[in-house]
Amino acid sequence: MLTIVGERPAASQRFCDGMSRRMFLRVGALGLGAGALTLADVLRAESITGKTQPHKAIINIFLGGGPPHQDMWDLKPNAPAEIRGEFKPIATCVPGIEIGETFPLVAARMHKFALIRSVVGANGRHDAEQCTTGWPLDSLKSVGGRPSIGSVLAKLRGPVDPSVPPFVGLAAPTQAMPWSNPGTPGFLGPAYAAFKPDGPGMENMRLGAISADRLRDRRLLLAGFDRLRRDLDARGTMQAKDQFDRDAFDLLASSRLVDALDLSREDPKVLARYGDGKPYQYQFDGAPTVNEHLLLARRLVEVGVRCVTLTFGRWDSHSENFKLVRDHGSKLDQALTALIDDLDQRGMLNDVTVIAWGEFGRTPRINKKAGRDHWPQVSAAILAGGGMRTGQVIGSTNRLGEHAQDRPVHFQELFATLYRNLGINSATTTLRDPSGRPQYLVEREPLRELI
């Protein structure tokens, strides 16, 4: 952890070595040190190679509340009216594949997507756990619970760039926690939790926002760093460093993370392609449809984040289901296709896996309020990127969309696939829980159809 000397502390606030919390501006207190390399080490390596190494990443889009598969990806036009609803299927660019009419942009790019129409294993509760870990909420609860895929990446891979957290959760706070859960660190502990841009940790990265009476410019900041280094050298606790330390400090002072989160730096034409998702509708206690979060996800991956999670909308449609799907669906259609095009144009699509899904599906039968209720028996997911074989549909449901008919796909099979795309073999990789017992990431194999 890098610290910069500030004002003199009161005696009651000092650490055992004479330093204090108020005495420091702490840079890097975000769980960024999950690896052995220092920032200076990384810069030395880059001075030799001339560029930052590409990395594998995942953008996990949680459609919180349970999106209706029958109105989006698995329409049943030949079912009775009380089952099929009001949407009509439309042809895609892949012969033989049809999807819901609210997704014309996805349809035009179906060759870049893979649809899973037979996701099984849901527990029927409103929580994000199965979409962030692959496990039910109660799994290993006695030792802290299962870690989400972002926390696993933070533990096993650490940061790509020590000034950028490996795991970021973008969902804004919501009244009901499940709608904005980025994925918990489980038994790995808070050091591997998601960094939240709206949380207190963000202040540690805003070096440019330090008040003028404390740090007027970068020279003063660097002078503070030099004083700290001299003080520590005098006590024999730190050896002199080379110019890379200054370069490293400049990189932190420039704050790549803050820049990535600043959409005013983005090309206005790119912003327009994503849209903003407004006006936000049907939020209740849930998440809004923030199209810009998908753009932020791309920008974050571009500067080194390994896992970005976000929640798009609130899909718990017990009433007015079709009105909700027209609103949320059209906005998701715009943002999701803009993201895939953006990643493709930047040469990132093969390295970045994108998945959008919810915790369960909705009832085949439409209720008296024109809604669909909870249906854990089967749901759907849409994926892209990651070097996968796209332009296909995997699995099917029966004529009424009640249950998986061909090729049931468990949540854990999807997670095994995600880990494989990230370069992690889930069949051999384990993490030790607090009791010292090794725990596998998941207990199923990757989807062979996508490999």
Overview of this structure, please?
α1 packs across α7 (243-254) and α10 runs parallel beside α11. The longest helix is centred in the last third of the chain and has 25 residues, at 321-345. Strands 3, 6, 7, 8, 9, 12, 13 and 16 form an eight-stranded mixed sheet that branches. The chain is 26% helix and 15% strand. With 451 residues, the chain is of the alpha/beta class. A hairpin with a 6-residue loop joins β14 (396-397) and β15. The two termini are 40 Å apart.
Q: What is the average per-residue confidence, as pLDDT, rounded to a whole number? A: 84
Percent strand equals 15-25%
Radius of gyration: 24 Å
- Give the N-terminus to C-terminus distance in angstroms: 40 Å
> How is the biggest beta sheet arranged?
8 strands, mixed
Helix content: 25-40%
Compact description:
This protein has helices at 39-49, 81-84, 104-107, 129-132, 149-156, 218-234, 243-254, 256-260, 268-274, 292-302, 321-345, 411-421; strands at 2-5, 24-27, 57-62, 89-91, 98-100, 113-120, 167-169, 307-311, 352-357, 361-362, 374-375, 379-385, 392-394, 396-397, 404-406, 409-410, 430-432, 438-440. The protein has 451 residues and is of the alpha/beta class. The longest helix has 25 residues, at 321-345.
Characteristic terms for this protein:
451 residues, alpha/beta, 8-stranded mixed sheet, 12 helices, disordered N terminus
Question: Mind sketching the topology for me?
Answer:
Elements lengths: L1 E4 L18 E4 L11 H11 L7 E6 L18 H4 L4 E3 L6 E3 L3 H4 L5 E8 L8 H4 L16 H8 L10 E3 L48 H17 L8 H12 L1 H5 L7 H7 L17 H11 L4 E5 L9 H25 L6 E6 L3 E2 L11 E2 L3 E7 L6 E3 L1 E2 L6 E3 L2 E2 H11 L8 E3 L5 E3 L11
Parallel strand pairs: 3-8, 3-9, 6-13, 6-16, 7-8
Antiparallel strand pairs: 1-2, 4-5, 6-12, 9-12, 10-11, 14-15, 17-18
